[in-house]
Amino acid sequence: MIKKILITSLIYSLLSINAFSAGSGGDGGGSSGGSSGDSSGTGEASGGHGAVKSNYEKAVTHIKVAKKYEQKEKFDKANRRFKKALKLLVKANKKKPNDADTLNYLGFTTRKLGDYENGEKYYLQGLAIEPNHTGINEYLGELYVATNRIDLAKERLQVLSSCNCEEYTELKEIIEGTKKSKY
Fold first, then answer.
1. 25, 94 contact by CB (below 8 A)
2. Domain contains 74
3. How far apart are CA 181 and CA 35, in angstroms?
4. CB 55 within 8 A of CB 38
5. pTM, whole model, 2 decimals?
6. CA separation (Å) from 56 to 32, 62, 89, 170?
7. DSSP state of 41
8. Domain interval for residue 50
9. Mean of the pLDDT values across residues 87-107?
10. Is 35 part of any domain?
11. Who's near 108: CB < 8 A, 6+ residues apart?
12. Separation of alpha carbons 82 and 180, rounded Å
């Protein structure tokens, strides 16, 4: 138990340093749990109805568009969207730290931009908060496959084995080499 607390503290410290060096600052965040407020009042209105999107919600939109660009093999446009998403997620994480969904997307965007080391740090911080997060376990497993650490990928697969979810199937096929990661 003490070892887990020490590891978690170390990860938090490393990510705090990383967040400041990434130029964080500014307005709000939210989580996929529906928090969409931006208490600083500097967010953009959406839809003309006075609704304010959080930085997290804006980032998710950029990520979805980036994935579509990737499917069309427009990688420069995809990378620009991932970079925008990353900036927004860093702001969201600063305003509301320790949200597993935000950390999942921080890991995902940094990984997509080729920064596997920081992607792994974000994923591990998210797992320290929510060890059975299906998205983090799948994406971290994919990162481990991409960095040729198959044993660690299999550990993530084991965590997903009882979820009866598509993330388990996806990661299993990627580990077996019968499917290429779509992300």
1. yes
2. yes
3. 30
4. yes
5. 0.71
6. 8, 10, 6, 25
7. S
8. 2-131
9. 96
10. yes
11. 63, 119, 139, 183
12. 20
Residue 172 CB neighbours (<10 A): 18
Q: What are the structure tokens assigned to 34, written together?
A: 């529906």
Per the structure block, which two tokens stand in for 47? 């839809």
Partnered with residue 45 across adjacent β-strands are 52
Structure-token match 């839809």, residue found: 47
Interval 19-71: pLDDT, tens? 333 333 333 333 333 333 333 333 333 444 558 899 999 999 999 999 999 99
How many domains does one find in the chain?
Answer: 1
Q: Are 130 and 65 in contact (CB under 8 A)?
A: no
Residue 170 inside a domain? The answer is no
**51-52/45-46 β-pairing:** antiparallel
Count, residues in the chain = 183
**Contact yes or no for 159/137 (Cβ under 8 A):** yes
Coil, helix or strand for 79?
Answer: helix
